[in-house]
Amino acid sequence: MELRRIRDAEDARRCLAAVRDSGEDRAAWARRNGVDPRSLNAWRINLDRSAPGPRLLELVPRRVEVPQSVLVIRCGPFAVDVPNDVDESVLTKVLAVLAAC
């Protein structure tokens, strides 16, 4: 099971309150609820600091979608990348324009 990271301060406060209400250890509560314990602890430390303003910026890699394979149509100096899910009527129009060149 992939554990989710805490999204923001409000999410962290809500989770930390649930931990307090449960009486469980933070790490055990986090794992049982599908939360990354390290992320929860980092937010706890950040929220416990007395100075106002954000102290933590958690960088989470975004998921990179694999691009769909494309068909490349070459006509003289022109090249058109056509995705697999292209609408047939659009492809017909593109080919008509290329044919006229």
Give an account of the 3D structure.
This protein is α+β, with helices and mostly antiparallel strands and about 100 residues long. It has two domains: about 1-60, no CATH class; about 70-100, no CATH class. It is built from four helices and two strands. The protein has helices at about 10-20, 25-30, 35-50, 90-100; strands at about 70-75, 80-85. It has a two-stranded antiparallel sheet. Strand 1 (about 70-75) and strand 2 (about 80-85) form a beta hairpin. Helix 1 (about 10-20) crosses helix 3 (about 35-50). The mean pLDDT is about 80.
> What class, by secondary structure content?
alpha+beta
The portion of residues assigned to helices is 40-55%
Strand-residue proportion? 5-15%
Number of helices: 4
Compute the average pLDDT.
Answer: 81
* Main pleated sheet: 2 strands, antiparallel
Could you give the count of β-strands? 2
Oligomer: single chain
Tell me the count of domains. 2
Gyration radius, rounded: 25 Å
The low-confidence runs, each spanning 5 or more residues with pLDDT under 50, are none
The helix-strand sequence is HHHEEH
Q: How are the strands ordered across the major sheet?
A: 1-2
Distance between the termini: 55 Å
Shape: rod-shaped
